[in-house]
Structures are given as C-alpha cells and as structure tokens.
Write a structure and sequence with these properties.
This protein is mainly alpha-helical and 152 residues long. The protein contains six helices and two strands. 57% of the residues lie in helices and 7% in strands. A hairpin with a 7-residue loop joins strand 1 and strand 2.
Length: 152
C-alpha cells in the first residue's frame, strides 16, 4: 500500500548483496490522490496528532529526514494494521497488558467526544454507530468491557 501510494523511494542495487546501493526519489507513477491525502494527514498528525506521533514527526524533522513522508508511511502501516485487527488506535502507554482497566476506560471517555463530533459533522453519526456497523460493534464492546457509557 505504501508503495502504491508512492511514499517509498526507489532503491537500485547491482552486483549482488555486496554491490553499491542507490536510493533515489519516490516514484512519479503512483496513486496521486491517495498520496496527497496520506501526506496531508501525516502533516496534520505531526502538528496536532497524538503526542507519540508528534514527537516522531519532530524527531524526523530535526534529523533532516523528510518527516511528512516518514509519518505518512507510518500512518499507512498503522491504518492497515488497525483495519486487519479491527481495533482503534491507542497510545503506546496503553497497549501494554500491565495497564489498568481504568486507564483505558479513561482514554476512551476522553477521546469519545472528538470521535462523536467528527461523525456528527458529516451527519452520519447514527449510520456509523449502528449496531450492525463496525464502529457500532466497537462501541458496544468497549462499553461492555470497561463498563462505561459512550452516548450518541
């Protein structure tokens, strides 16, 4: 997916594993719409996203790397993983098995208003969180697991 979006630089190598490696620019033939959206999202994450992603963006920028493309690649990998596992993003500090249930519940309660507001702006709140939709199922599971109320 990252290659299809045109976010990976070209790598050429000749002479086997001992040969000289040339790292070029990103491919010009790519899905430009996907690339533009993902890079725009990465820039937004770098300035307004979760603290761990903002710190990674700043670290890459200070190191002279192309932070927009680096975070865009990370963003796509995370999105693909979350889709495959049907999960919602959680900060690194909450992913450990040693984290208290109350801490995760608190995270869901603090992020819920922003998530609800995004779907409300699109006038799709009821449709997105319907019982037969993935977000609706996720909401029900979170409410049951953590004994919290995520009101629509």
């Amino acid at each position: 997916m990252v290659s299809y979006a045109g976010l990976i630089p070209r790598v050429k190598q000749s002479g086997g594993s001992e040969g000289k490696i040339y790292v070029g620019q990103v491919a010009k033939r790519c899905n430009r719409i996907l690339k533009n959206y993902v890079v725009s999202s990465a820039v937004h994450l770098g300035f307004h996203g979760p603290p761990d992603l903002m710190a990674d963006y700043k670290r890459r920028d200070v190191a002279g790397q192309h932070a927009d493309f680096g975070i865009a690649r990370r963003y796509l990998r995370m999105a693909m993983c979350l889709m495959r596992t049907s999960q919602v993003y959680m900060p690194r500090r909450l992913r450990s098995g040693k984290v208290k249930r109350e801490d995760r519940a608190s995270y869901y309660l603090t992020m819920w208003p922003a998530l609800r507001e995004k779907w409300k702006k699109l006038d799709a709140l009821k449709a997105a969180f319907a019982k037969d939709q993935p977000l609706g199922q996720w909401r029900d599971i979170v409410q049951q697991l953590y004994e919290i109320k995520l009101s629509l």
